[in-house]
Amino acid sequence: MRFTGTETYVATSDLTTAVNAAIVLERPLLVKGEPGTGKTVLAEEIAKGLGATLLTWHIKSTTKAQQGLYEYDAVSRLRDSQLGDPRVSEISNYIRRGKLWEAFSAHERPVLLIDEIDKADIEFPNDLLTELDRMEFHVYETGETVKAARRPIVIITSNNEKELPDAFLRRCFFHYIKFPDAETLQQIVDVHYPGIKHRLVEEALRVFLETREVPGLKKKPSTSELLDWLKLLVSEDVQPETLRERDSRKLIPPLHGALLKNEQDVSLFEKLAFMMRREGRGG
């Protein structure tokens, strides 16, 4: 069972090496990188490439580790007992399985994505350690033990919003997805827009990469935002010459709402454009 990428996902050699190492070691793959570099999509493509089922657990600030195992709905059981519902005699009717339970009980080895683990409380990763290590847990309400027949392929993403505990990190295989270079970006564009004009892509990539290098930019545009921008350029029939005329380090790019996602960065470009015009270098 080896991952080599898919037709819709450009995976670099170091990334495929990391994925396959985690599979061999049967350890969670912890993936970090800038937002928009394909961390979440990676799990989807691994499942597609391996022909496996994908189970996704999106983590929020209020998520508790117990929710990944199961939740016991005692309130519903109490209400049903007051109404004389016969289901109350079977406590399992009020046990709601979490994503870890689904992954452990799957007949075929699934891919389990634990997405944005750093959004949760700092204790969340530690609370998962035992279950991820032993691949089993106990359901106290029913007295049963749930044990994985095969270890799922676990992909964990993080945006570095919080530091993760050392004990948790020791149990993971780590990979940082670097921002793609120009050649890799070209491959990504070719995969998503195979018929797009080469000259437009060439100029768009130049503007995009120069935009990312503008000093003081609060949020650099990501790969996913590049793809959105290209789609708009094609839709609005923006010509390569239009992009070539602009110095993107000083002038705001056309359809910039796809690239710049906050008012501070838009204001930064407007100030740079104003300074350029004042110096008499508007073209």
From TrEMBL:
Domain AAA+ ATPase: 25-183
Database matches in InterPro entries: AAA+_ATPase, ATPase_dyneun-rel_AAA, CbbQ/NirQ/NorQ/GpvN, P-loop_NTPase
Domain of life: Bacteria
Single GO MF descriptor: ATP binding
PANTHER family listed in its UniProt record: MAGNESIUM-CHELATASE SUBUNIT CHLD, MOXR FAMILY PROTEIN
Identification of the protein by name: ATPase AAA
The organism of origin for this protein: Methylobacterium brachythecii
